[in-house]
Amino acid sequence: MKRRDLEKRLRHSGSYLKREGGAHSLWINPKTGVVEAIPRHAEIKEPLARKILKSLQAE
Q1: pLDDT, tens digit, for every residue of 14-58?
Q2: Radius of gyration over every alpha carbon of the chain, rounded to an integer in angstroms
Q3: What predicted TM-score, i.e. pTM, was given to this entire model?
Q4: How far is CA 28 from the centre of its chain?
Q5: Distance of CA 44 to the CA centre of its chain
Q6: Ramachandran class of 48: left when φ > 0, alpha when ψ lies in -120 to 50, beta otherwise
Q7: If you write DSSP's letter for every residue of the chain in order, what string do you get?
Q8: Which among 35, 25, 26 is positioned nearest to 57, based on CA atoms?
Q9: How far apart are CA 30 and CA 50, in angstroms?
């Protein structure tokens, strides 16, 4: 999955970018307070993308 598509789905679900790191971006779901690290690669493998979406309740 492309990183920008993943970020688009996260934004649509209400999550937002908390901060940028050197190798990862931290996203937070304000409803649950869950923070998830997203690698700064152009392409993110599908199992990892599904895990991130599930963790941030963006499915």
Answers
A1: 999 999 999 999 999 999 999 999 999 999 999 999 999 999 998
A2: 10
A3: 0.91
A4: 8
A5: 10
A6: alpha
A7: -BHHHHHHHHHHTT-EEEEE-SSEEEEEETTTTEEEEEE--SB--HHHHHHHHHHTT--
A8: 35
A9: 19
Which structure tokens are listed for 24? 């990862």
Q: What type of residue is 43?
A: E
CB 48 within 8 A of CB 3: no
Of residues 7, 14, 39, the one with CA closest to residue 25? 39
- On whether the CB atoms of residues 33 and 17 are closer than 8 A, the answer is no
